Amino acid sequence: MSNKPVKHAQAAAEFLEDDPHRLFHDERLWDMRQKRDQQMHGMPEWQELRDRASRIKEHTLANLPTYLEQFEENARRNGIHVHWARDGAEHNRIVAEIMGKHDAKSLIKSKSMITDECEMREYLEPRGITVTETDLGERIQQLDHQLPSHVVVPAVQKLTGDVAKIFAKYYGTDPNIKDPHELAEAQREAARPVLLSGDTGMTGGNFIVAETGGFVVCTNEGNADLSSNLPNVHIATLGIERLVPRVEDLGVFVRLLSRSALGSPITQYTTHFRGPRKGGEMHVILVDNGRSDRLAMPQFWSSLKCIRCGACMNTCPVYRRSGGQSYGSVYSGPIGAIIDPTFNAKKFSTLPFASTMNGSCSNVCPVEINIHEQIYDWRRVLAEKHDIPFVKREIMKMAGRLLAQPRLYRVSIEGTEVALKTMPRFVLYNYLNPWGKHRELPHPVKETFNSWYRKNRLKTSTKKEHESA
Amino acid sequence: MSARNTILDKLRRNRVPREDDYELPPVKILGDLDKSIERFEKSLQLMGGEVLPQRDGQTIEDVVRARFPNTTSICSAVPEVEGTLKITDLKTHEQSNEVDVMVVRSPFGIAEMGSIFLSEVELFDHLADVHLAQHLVVLLSREELTANMHTAYRERSEFKTAFYGVLMSGPSATADIQGVLIRGAQGVRTLSLIWTS
Ligand code: SF4
After folding, report:
1. Quick one: pLDDT band at residue A433, thresholds 50, 70, 90?
2. What is the ipTM of this complex?
3. What is the residue-averaged pLDDT of chain B?
4. CB distance B3–A84 less than 8 Å?
5. Which member of A248, A261, A312, A464 has the lowest number of beta carbons within 10 Å of its beta carbon?
6. How confident is the prediction for chain A on average, in pLDDT?
7. Where are the beta strands (DSSP E) in A105-225?
């Protein structure tokens, strides 16, 4: 992996140049955000759910070693082989070893960010193992040799025409297909034989349950249930932070996850694995890969509460306008900005600057991570590591690129959506003064925004803009 | 030191949050406790599922045949439906891949989500086969509804006994290409429900 800082601002500027892509991306993610709001409004207990989700996660992280041991014991009792991996390389070796024992050559997998994080495909493929992503979005990204753009919708930055071209190249379909249904059907047709002949299946896991020694996989396409159940061997790669103590805790998280992610009440499939099926073999790999280090960071440990719903990405004006590819990492958007630097502080040093500090990410986060405050803290940490000119330069680049776009700019705070023609003053203020004066204000973002909004709402928001927001 | 012990040791020594500061909140049942058939049906339809009406004099087999009049392949995992073959007759995945309609019984449904549960018990260990079929028909007793996710995890022991337990909420779906919602992605293309008593 190259250590050179990701040129986020430059990549974002390139993405912004193409109108159809930029506009669709912005609209699509904003639509997901609005559907999430609709779900939230239908549930008076929403805040209580978020609060419980946050507290359950905090408690679990504070007792992580104990719960990991409890999970391991119960999983073993159920007949699951439990492996531990300190880092991505160790994880990849374990996968290769398991497959080697079975003389297996074809790994069919459902979407899991953590295997991308481990760069597993890059390790296995030169060793003669074919890795096939079976989630549609992740498959599109795999064929196009790109990292996922988004944790929930990996190919969200592409339009139908882009997918038609990629499928034409690899699946031999018509490059001019205009109907997404036809493309999805092409994927189904192409995936079936691979699924049927795959000799090892792989999934991630959204939640691990210490009490039962099981784990839960939430998906929509049905590919995870096929990938895990068709071959005789199922390997699940699980981040150690995904634990919850009790089965009943799942109620809280399942109710929040898909509502926050896509605005649908639940994923089409919520699958509870607790042991190998009859005649099958099940392995779980518990992966650390920097998580234990993150848990030792006073300002940043709570980012481990993340359930990867993507809500912070959908709401982030910078992410919506710059696209996931511009972050140059597996995790993009606000959550990427706070966890990527823990993997590589140099390479991802620019990402905490890809934010307007509007706080919307923290407001939508179902586990109440103080994302925007951590972004701010990262700027300080990075400023200590780098020189101030570096920091200033990054801020200027971000500000310059975004301010140069005199287009509709959306900011949302606590469910209040406004469409803005121009960027509010506080955004500019935050770009140019990431710390210093900023620190004198107890709640700088909210107060500044609210007062700005009160003064300007009538002037700047027309009916049409409200509708399109 | 083994990877296991290195990781656990690091977590024990270095973690910032400490046990005493973060108590585990007791489990609480939240949300709407309506477990009516109406709520379940509304949720199921929102997720893309259908409810098949059973008219006077119609057997369940008739209802299935009426929904899929042209099919020549109905695989049954329930005594109520004869079909063209039994789930336990499936010997290879290639054979299962030819199944058009699969009929199963779910032990319970969740009104909040329109979800039905399936495990190795109802599927006779044919876990992949239910997902390879093109269409799924689910029988569910009107008596076996629970209100929401909290009550489901509290009341249903299946979550602690099944090795494989899937909550299906409508058919497979994707919106990965330009945000267009497509029902029928890689798993079943449709999911229909028939009430039984
Ligand atoms: S940080 Fe919060 S909002 Fe963002 S992906 Fe994680 S859980 Fe979702």
Report:
1. very low
2. 0.98
3. 97
4. yes
5. A464
6. 84
7. 106-109, 130-133, 200-203, 207-209, 214-219
Give residue-wise pLDDT tens across range A82-124.
999 999 999 999 999 999 999 999 999 999 999 999 999 999 9
In our burial notation (b when 16+ CB lie closer than 10 A, e otherwise), range A101-123 reads eeebebbbbbbbbbbbbbebbeb
Q: Tell me, yes or no, if A212 comes closer than 8 A to chain B by beta carbon.
A: yes
Distance CA A345, CA A349 (A): 5
Q: Tell me, what's the pLDDT at B125?
A: 97
**Running DSSP on this structure, what letter comes out for residue B17?**
S
- In total, chain A counts a number of residues equal to 469
Closest to A248 (Cβ–Cβ): which among B17, B21, B27? B27
Expressed in angstroms and rounded, the spacing between residue A320 Cα and the centre of ligand 1 is 15
Please choose from A308, A313, A360, A370 the residue to mutate so as to test ligand 1's pocket, defined by most ligand atoms within 8 A of CB. Answer: A308
Question: Given B16, B163, B177, which is nearest A274 (Cβ)?
Answer: B163
- Domain at B31-196, CATH from 2.60.40.1190, 3.40.50.10420, 2.60.40.1120, 3.20.20.150: 3.40.50.10420
CA triple A180-A185-A186, angle to 5 deg: 95
* Binary contact (B163, A288; C-beta < 8 A): no
What pLDDT is recorded for position A358? Answer: 81
β-bridge pairing A207-209 and A106-109: unpaired
Q: Is B50 buried (19+), middle (13-18) or exposed (0-12) by CB count in 10 A?
A: middle
Pocket test for ligand 1, best of A50, A309, A332, A373 (most atoms within 8 A of CB): A309
Q: Report chain A residues whose CB lies below 8 A from the CB of B47.
A: 264-266, 268
| Cβ contact, residue pair B150, A229, below 8 Å | no
CATH of A43-289, one of 3.40.50.10420, 3.20.20.70, 3.30.70.20, 2.60.40.1120: 3.40.50.10420
Q: CATH 3.40.50.10420 occupies which residues in chain A?
A: 43-289
The secondary structure of residue A467, as a DSSP letter, is: H
